[in-house]
Amino acid sequence: MADVEAALDQAGLTNPHVREYVSYWADLTGAERVEVISASDDARLAQEALDAGELLPAGEGLYYSRSYHKDTARSEERTIVATSNPEDAGAYNNWRPSSEMKPLLEGKMRGASAGKTMYVVPYLMAPPGSPLEAYAAGVELTDSRTVVMHMIRMARVGIDYINDLADPNSFVRAVHVTGDLENLGHGTPDDARYFVTVADERTILHFGSSYGGNALLGKIAHGLRQAAYDGWASGKFLSEQFMLLGITDKETGKKYHICGGFPSASGKTNLAMTLAPDALGDRYYVDFYGDDIAWLWVDENDGKLYGMNPEFGVFGVAKDTNEATNPGALHSVDAGSGAIFTNIAYNPKTQEVWWEGKTPNPPEDVTGWEDWKGDLISERAEGDDSPWAHPNSRFTTTLSNVPNVAPDFNSPQGVPIDAIIFGGRTRDREPLIRAMTDLAEGVYDGLTLGAEATFAAEGVDGQLRYDPMSMRPFMSYPEGAYAAHWLKIISQANEMPLFAHVNWFQRGDDGRFLWPGYRENLRPLLWLMQLKAGEVSGRQTPVGIIPTKEELNLEGLDIPAEDLDTILTIDNARWQQEIENRDVHLAAFHGLPEEIWEAHRRVKAALEAD
Ligand code: GTP
Ligand code: MN
Ligand code: MN
């Protein structure tokens, strides 16, 4: 049994509530040792992980890891939000009573860390001094060393964040127990994995995974699910799966901040990182603030809407990251960055790594190369063309490694928000960009955001998998209340942000993308900022304002005229079809504010009259 008191004394962890929490779980999980972590432990942990074979060297200051082959993504079916109030059940939050979930999780975790070290990871999901600091502190307990190393990159980690709390009992209790990965019945009726947020007790209990999306509890479970619930319960803020960037016009000296949500794997990281400093020549500079989470609030003093990224790092999709698509991401994992790669292809002899899209073709000499599962490429069966890297393979790096990270990314007061954008993967119908000036229409647009499940295969023709505000997997309270909370927070601002819907993914009949995407996405965003500044007026359509061809900066692009027409046109018939789908989608949300229904009916009527 671990001598918990001695370990906590030695680390100087004095917060009595944290001590009690650590003792309770050390005892329950049966951990052999307890170790309190600070960011400065990283080098030692890395050496230990290399010695133990948990990580492999991938060049100077770079690490490679593999997760169990059935444990490579977030599991939405196994994710649950629990509270003691049945009225907290929504369409997507998979609500269950906490009286059922807590004993169940304690049962699974009891004795499950026997023989292991329980790491105590105190963290802060905000820059210190933030007006939302009271909601940002947490302590993750985990029995995985690689999870600790990820947490050090993704969150601000250190003992001071919890010793000095204004309210010493106000921290998120986040317990992660890996479990016996090979015997959890993944995907069977006896699946033993549970990822539970007991939201009204600010307690997170995750059992049965060591993959980042399930195991880095500061990020998604606290930063998104718990924070969204806290923002609603306190009435003070929003927490969303949003990227956040700044655009500076060097000629006018003006700086704009845009945040927004796209469903997972729809381009947030790429947008925020790719709009590299030299985008569109020398005139504009793009600052990176965040790629996955933003907290939004209205400042009590100046009445402006502010946003900040609570994270300290990036957990990005590796696939298709290369010098052309995303040089920023590529250089954020340069030698010496401390980056960790997960589930890509690896060559133990040369310590090189590779993923699909890193280069047009895989390395020619396959000697020594192993796929993400660790199988030798040279021993693959004839005709086996399965990917070398897992499609959801990731890189983990700290914000300060991102070449265009904003100089004020650590600033506690956040940045004023000029526009909020939504975007999904939509093969047709959605134009390149359309702007909305009305709050209810903006929120309505977010609520009806979606992405095609996949091309052709699972997708019912033209039907989206709706993903309100890109929060479907992270929704912690009912959608009706969520919409009302959005209307309430944003209407407190003395200046409305502009809303917009973007789509980089329209396709031609032959399947090609009609818009070049990636770094060219700066162009529609610049138009949006010009619209905000009153420099252009666009063209009003039933679903918002869209740019005219003349207004959009197309310098140096070679897009066929008919493709351009398609992405700058509203297909009325397809839109009316979509509106019918929305009737059904929105009806699933109890207590949706009347303003949202009115916006829906307004758009519908405008389309019919058009
Ligand atoms: P999560 O991190 O899972 O929340 O996803 P994300 O929204 O950050 O997605 P990400 O930026 O990693 O992009 C996912 C995929 O979309 C990658 O394979 C990109 O190459 C592709 N992608 C991103 N932007 C564009 C674009 O402008 N055009 C096209 N065609 N593809 C893009
Ligand atoms: Mn995400
Ligand atoms: Mn991302």
From TrEMBL:
Molecular-function annotations in GO: GTP binding; kinase activity; manganese ion binding; phosphoenolpyruvate carboxykinase (GTP) activity
Binding of substrate, residues: R74, Y211, G212, G213, S264, N392, S393, R394
GO biological process, one term: cellular response to glucose stimulus
Needed co-factor(s): Mn(2+)
Quaternary structure annotation from Swiss-Prot or TrEMBL: Monomer.
Reactions accelerated catalytically: oxaloacetate + GTP = phosphoenolpyruvate + GDP + CO2
Protein name: Phosphoenolpyruvate carboxykinase [GTP]
Protein task: Catalyzes the conversion of oxaloacetate (OAA) to phosphoenolpyruvate (PEP), the rate-limiting step in the metabolic pathway that produces glucose from lactate and other precursors derived from the citric acid cycle.
Residues involved in GTP binding: A265, S266, G267, K268, T269, N270, R394, R425, Y518, R519, E520, N521
Keyword annotations from UniProtKB, A to Z: Cytoplasm, Decarboxylase, Gluconeogenesis, GTP-binding, Kinase, Lyase, Manganese, Metal-binding, Nucleotide-binding, Pyruvate, Transferase
UniProt lineage: Bacteria, Bacillati, Actinomycetota, Actinomycetes, Propionibacteriales
Family of this protein: Belongs to the phosphoenolpyruvate carboxykinase [GTP] family.
Main localization (coarse): cytoplasm
Highest taxon listed in the record's lineage: Bacteria
Subcellular compartments: Cytoplasm
Keyword Phosphoprotein: no
Listed pathway(s): Carbohydrate biosynthesis; gluconeogenesis
Active site: S266
Enzyme Commission no: 4.1.1.32
Gene: pckG
Entry GO terms, CC: cytosol
